[in-house]
Amino acid sequence: MSPEKRLRSAGAVLGISLLIGVGLAPTVPSTEAAWTDAERATATGASINVPEPIASASPGCVASSGLLGANPKVTISWRAPAAATGYDLTKAEFGQIVNQGLLEPILSNLLGNVQTTGSAAAYVTVIDGGLLTGLLGATKTFGIRFTGPGGWKSDWLVANATMGLLGANPQCTMGTAASY
């Protein structure tokens, strides 16, 4: 037999042996995945609602321009709701609209321009608007909110103050705005 025929015969025998071996190999049985676990867990959750400050007088805010708008001020009368305990001036945060219409906290009391007096029954916060804001007319929005447990924040109690050129026709309206 020629070497080529021997090589072909050996390849054929090897291929047939391989097919027989695969055919005789046991198949993997199919299974369904299932499990049960008798353990159970329960938990209790609690939610809190940090109350927003409310106006304590009517009107809740007053804008005044001073002489020809040279000394504009916004006065906000506010307190915590009657049912809310533990919320007072120490839990209050003040803010103003400074960018893109968002209320942002006033991080420091620069030049003493935010002053609050009173007690938990009724606070009065006076915000001094500065010299130039009233001369040219302005719209300013200030807010007050409470910080609760875990750093949660209430919605803002908002005072929208406006005045015309040289402090003409100062007005202030109250509302609310979401903190987030």
Helix content: 10-25%
The fraction of residues assigned to DSSP E strands is 25-35%
Report how far the terminal alpha carbons are from each other.
90 Å
Number of strands: 10
Q: What is the CATH architecture annotation of the domain at 54-83 and 92-177?
A: Sandwich
* Integer-rounded radius of gyration: 38 Å
Question: On the 0-100 scale, what is the average pLDDT?
Answer: 83
Count of helical segments?
Answer: 2
Q: What's the story with the biggest beta sheet?
A: 5 strands, antiparallel
In the CATH scheme, the class of the domain at 54-83 and 92-177 would be Mainly Beta
Q: Based on helices, strands and strand pairing, what is the structural class?
A: alpha+beta
Q: Estimate the global geometry from the Cα principal axes.
A: elongated
Topology order in helix (H) and strand (E) letters: HEEEEEEEHEEE
Low-confidence stretches: none
CATH topological fold name of the domain at 54-83 and 92-177: Immunoglobulin-like
